Amino acid sequence: MNSDHPHNSGDTLLVPPAATGYKALKKYRRHAHKRVFVNRSLMLEKIKYFGFDMDYTLAVYKSPQYETMGFNLTVERLVAIGYPQELYNNEYDPSFPVRGMLFDKHLGNLIKVDTFGNILVCVHGFRFLNSKEIAELYPNKFITLKSDRLYVLNTLFNLPETYLLACCVNYFSTSSEYTAVSSSVGVKKGDLMLSWESIFEDVRNAVDWVHMKGALKQTTVDQPDEYVIKDPRLPVLLQRMRDHGRKVFLVTNSDYNYTKKIMTYLFDFPNGPAPDMPHKPWYQYFDVCIVSANKPKFFGTGSVLRQVDLETGALKIGTHVGPFQRGQVYSGGSCDTFCELMGCRGNDVLYIGDHIFGDILKSKKERGWRTFLVVPEVAQDLLVWTEKQSLFEKLEDLDAALADKYKYHVTVRNNKRVCIDSRAAREKHQCNESCKTMYLDSSTDVIPDISKVRKAIQQVTHEMDMCHGKLGSLFRSGSRQTFFASQVLRYADLYSSTFLNLLHYPFSYLFRAPHQLMPHEFTVDHQDTFQEEDTMADTMMSPALRRKRPGNSSNSADVSESPSEAQKKSLHMTLPSSVQVQPSAPLEITHVHDDDD
């Protein structure tokens, strides 16, 4: 059976039985772990070039083994340059760090913010600050996202760095040998002062040293089974892309020697993409391979494009100006040069990567490439979403209970009007259909006691956050989306836990974006009616409703009538009868919203 058949792809067609009396709701969905999620509609048939990053995209590093190694090597480097031996006491805790945190170099805090810079979580070392403490440090619990004092820890490579920053701040904040300076910008010991910014710079430099000069890469290639995930589906997908007439290219910041060893391991199978096909080297799966690309600079000014000697790894002299040759590897270059030599334009290309800034944001903003963001954390998020359904339902019940606090009920007993202001009271009075529900409005002086409901909501929200780890979810905190989530929505056309989920879709597929509803849409049921009261006819809310819309015959005011002759004369609007004086509603489709046209 063809592996592209819907049943093999884990597709389901959900149709509630007609006998239930519910309106038939059809949802054509693959299983959650096979899904690709859509922010902007994309017709896969229009994609002619598939581009890939390598690290954490083609080469996915095992967690927490890889982060633990990076953490330990960076601690060794810090101790080697003079940091205290006590840092060796810290062991990497994979449940602590999450991507998307900001480090405040001024105060030494790790901060999670929402789309606008409102602070959702703040931790100093290992100590989580409460709402009052946050407000004292950050007025209105807000910080501008463009501040130079902030460093964004957005990549998967940043996970051990995030935890190490917390370890360092915790050590210097709690060690009896150090005391805090009055301005809270660091600590001192005798005549030695350590600012949080200097500690950050030391950690940042140590991380770079470990990646560029340390043992991280060598240990990885020496023990790939321990640190790199090898998936036999990888050559299958790349071959299918080429079989369907697409060009496939690699653009990675890693150097040639490291890329060669990692890619050789990833494609080291006894056969080719199918059991009856012979094995072929990794670079033959790509039409173009570019190493040492220096993204995001690659999407701007770039650098000189040079050929790589496949035997020695040395760069050949001169600039490559001819056509790309399959089987050859190149170094550097720029997006302009690449597109010119490949003959591609922006929306022909779907670039797949894990780095929201270096891969996705720049390729989208600077070049107009279509983008696919690999977010491994989506798998964990879906697990919580499905397994912790009871918590989400409990939160909905608490929202209903909160709304109920702002209602009261009126009934008549013994010819007297009785006000019942709670559910318990309604049950006591056996309130029935004769009760009338009323809503507290601006005329009331009643202040309902919502403290218990608020406390319960906070507790359930905290429990949901802790399902993801000590710093909560990558995508949200309670009901608010994180800054990272807003970047995913803004710059990634598609996203998934792995790009290998493309195996479950035909190359003619239309990824159609779902409706992104606003609160006034998803909190109001379609069954609800919206109608002005007679007393509201001339209020501020009425003008928009009184405008006549195409296809809406309920509005009594007809603003489509032509101006009177007197009006035309007064405005010098005497026009030939053939001239149209007002626009008409389009009779054919003109508004292409989400079909990738």
What does this molecule look like?
Helix content is 31%, strand content 16%. It is built from 18 helices and 26 strands. The strands form seven sheets. It has a nine-stranded mixed beta sheet with strand order 3-25-19-18-5-14-15-17-16. α8 (256-266) links the parallel β14 (247-251) and β15. α1 (65-80) crosses α3 (158-174) and α12 packs antiparallel against α14. The radius of gyration is 30 Å and the shape is globular. It starts with 10 loop residues before the first strand and ends in a 27-residue tail after the last helix. Residues 1-25 and 555-561 have low confidence and may be disordered.
What are its keywords?
597 residues; alpha+beta; nine-stranded mixed β-sheet; five-stranded antiparallel β-sheet; disordered N terminus
